[in-house]
Design a protein that fits this description.
The protein is an all-alpha fold. It is built from 3 helices and no strands. The two termini are 34 Å apart.
C-alpha cells in the first residue's frame, strides 16, 4: 500500500473514514448526554448500564482513530510525493487526534 494516492483517492479515503467515524461519534455524544441526565435523576442502575455501553463505544472510537492514524503514519504521510498531499494527510492526522481527544480522552 506504499503508493501515492491520487487526489480523488485521497478524498474518497477521507470521506469514507469521516462517514465511518461519524455515526459512532454521534452515538457516543448521545450516550454521554443520557448518562448525565440519568445521574441528575439519581437513577444509579441506569447510570451503570449507560456507562458500560459508553465504554464499549469509547473503545470502538479509539480503535477507529488508531487505525486511521496507523495508516497515515505508516503508509500515506511517508509516501506523500507533493506538498499538497502531505498537508492533506497531516490535516487528517490532526483531525483523528482531535476526535480521539474529544471523544475518548475528553469523555
Amino acid at each position: 500500500m506504499d503508493i501515492e494516492l491520487t487526489d480523488e483517492e485521497r478524498n474518497l479515503l477521507s470521506v469514507a473514514y469521516k462517514n465511518y467515524i461519524g455515526a459512532p461519534r454521534a452515538s457516543f455524544r448521545v450516550i454521554k448526554s443520557i448518562e448525565h441526565k440519568e445521574e441528575s435523576k439519581g437513577k444509579e442502575r441506569n447510570v451503570v448500564l449507560v456507562e458500560q455501553y459508553g465504554k464499549k463505544m469509547e473503545s470502538e472510537l479509539s480503535n477507529i482513530c488508531k487505525d486511521m492514524l496507523d495508516v497515515l503514519e505508516k503508509h500515506l504521510i511517508h509516501n506523500a510525493a507533493t506538498g499538497e498531499s502531505k498537508v492533506f494527510y497531516l490535516k487528517m492526522k490532526g483531525d483523528y487526534h482531535r476526535y480521539h481527544a474529544e471523544d475518548v480522552n475528553g469523555s
